[in-house]
Design a protein that fits this description.
Length: 203
């Protein structure tokens, strides 16, 4: 029964994670596919680049709420069992990043991971968000803000919580964020990463 509980949490989280707000917005509102433009990514940053802030903000909020809600509801379902919450967090992000109905080409999972972090450990999630915002303001690079923000989340959860399962979960979320941003990391290093306000050619 314990294993079945984890399987249910993982499966439900993955399928909810597949609800990709960027793709839904572009396909239902714009009759197009966001993945054909900008970075080719179905996420709020690419929506910002292609459609502007009025479209990107609700997409970001939806994906953040999605990550938060899945972990929060899992906590209610399992009486706040940390392992179950961590499993839900990982699978909702996997659903966002690799949704089955989009040929496994989704987003990079930043907003969903942020929402999951806020549910797992609110203070650490808040530290990640504030850190990301400050880095984005300073360098005008969303990708850099996301990377530094999740590093801050790892450090803060280790110092504040000390729970090895919780720390491991946020560490894996951070690793997934770095993996999904591997191309951005190369561009940050060579100085060619897109900045807020710059125009990017369509694909």
């Amino acid at each position: 029964m314990v294993v079945l509980k984890y399987i249910i949490c993982a499966a439900a989280a993955y399928f909810i994670g597949c609800l990709n707000a960027a793709y839904i917005y572009s396909s239902k509102i714009k009759n197009d596919d966001i993945r054909k433009y900008g970075s080719g990514n179905a996420g709020s940053t690419n929506v910002l680049r292609v459609y502007g802030i009025k479209a990107a903000l609700p997409v970001f909020l939806f994906d953040t709420f999605k990550g938060f809600a899945v972990v929060f509801l899992t906590g209610l379902f399992t009486n706040k069992e940390v392992l179950a919450e961590v499993i839900a967090a990982l699978f909702v992000v996997c659903g966002h990043n690799w949704p089955f109905f989009m040929s496994y080409r989704g987003g990079k999972g930043v907003a969903a991971s942020l929402g999951a972090c806020l549910a797992l450990e609110p203070l650490c999630g808040a530290i990640a968000l504030v850190t990301a915002i400050l880095v984005i303001i300073a360098f005008r690079m969303v990708s850099l803000g996301a990377l530094v923000g999740f590093v801050a989340a790892c450090i803060s959860v280790y110092l504040i919580s000390g729970d090895i399962i919780l720390f491991s979960g946020i560490l894996i979320l951070t690793a997934l964020t770095f993996y999904q941003h591997r191309g951005n990391i190369k561009r940050i290093i060579n100085g060619s990463e897109s900045k807020i306000g710059e125009k990017k050619k369509e694909k």
